[in-house]
Amino acid sequence: MRQMKKLLLPLTAALALTACNQPATQTPTAEAENVVAPFLDTNHVARAMGGTLEWNKMEGLAYDAGSRTLYIAVTAFSGGMSDGQGDIQLAKNPCGGIMAAQLDEKLNATRLTTILAGKPSADGKTCDVGGLNSPDNLFLDKKGRLWIGEDGDDTRNTLWVYDLKTKALKRFAVVPNGAEVTGLRISEQGDLFMNVQHPEPDNAAPYHLGTVGVFIGFNANTDDFTELPYDGSPLKTFKFAAGQYQILAQSGVKGAGVIANADGTASTSTNPDANMLLSTGSDAAVLYSNWENRPGGVSRLDLKRVGGVWTAQGDPSMVDFAGVNGTWNNCNGSVTRWGTALTSEEYPTEDDAGWAKAEPAMTKHLGKKANRYDYGYITEITPRAGGQSVAKHYAMGRNSYEMALVLPDNKTVYFGDDGNMRGMYKFVADKAEDLSAGTLYVAKLAQVDDSASVTGKSWNVSWIKLGHGVDSEIGQAIRRLD
Q1: Most buried residue among 78, 103, 257, 448 by CB atoms closer than 10 A?
Q2: Distance between CA 383 and CA 401 in Å, rounded?
């Protein structure tokens, strides 16, 4: 612990500035090791540098290249966003909403506006069933509609479709009791993938298990649908407006979501999260699915599309993360234009008490003493014949990352940062299609009145440089903390 303090403390603005000015190729020394502080303790350094650290549960992202608009799901306007202090001062809204960030020609977000929000009840404790209730997953289809999955009240979580042109919000599906909508992804062919995460075990089969699946007979890029009627009553099964739901994998079935420990024991996750679909040829793909537990995991399922139906080619397998000392809380994710998957790790421990509770399970998983600074990163998975390679990108910072989304320049990355009192971050890689080195930034917001925003407020955005990082150098510093 003494060595850890030497590396990361004191986390002051002065030290953070020193870190930013250190040459990226410098070999770390005892005097210069604070160069890695922005990448191992990102949230604290960002606050010390003057970033806006007030967001509450910034979740999924979607990007429209034509209008250079980044869409951001926010679970609730609460916590640091509604405490009447700081850079974000909004009325409390437990139902959350969707924000739109306008990007300039260099892909810097410059303006942030709320375009859609849920409708809280008079007592502020519930949300109108006809509107948003804690949005989480986002995906933009080719028709210009924004698909929105919820993770709020676990008796009525809904998959919505929001038409950005007409402003119409339509309900497509409602998941059963206890479940969240996760894994939202639309393939090039228009196939809608989504998961049913942690349903109640007493739901009607098969929706008593965590489920990975895809809709068939409905093209999410082109087809319209009649809205699913729903009165808010708890459901024991999965209801949807169009197509058929095809189950691809379920918790514990044929090894899906089974996370092995070094001693031969294992745990089974009921929390399938992101679906990351990578094409491997004509009507062939690899589907990576996150399993959000601690320790966490990612399953792989090889798929073939025949007659418009995706069929599993063999049983699911779990990705081996031993080379990066495991993963945890694998939450949302994305795919890159160069054919890789990005899985994220939520809720890294940022205090000793939190790590004391988390460490035994991770040590058991690894079969050796776990290091808290191995968790809280974006990990890139590259499929290979018969397997895959994995790389944790320490240069992208250590945070409660909901997901990372790479923009069309293949260099600029934006993040969802889940939790309270968090920041808005971006990363710019040194080279296109290479996330192993680059510069990390945090946003500084300035709130202004805006009648066009559904909250009456918007924000001008500026960016503060936290530092330039290289995976290999930061990885070496982490190993000195073992």
Answers
A1: 257
A2: 22
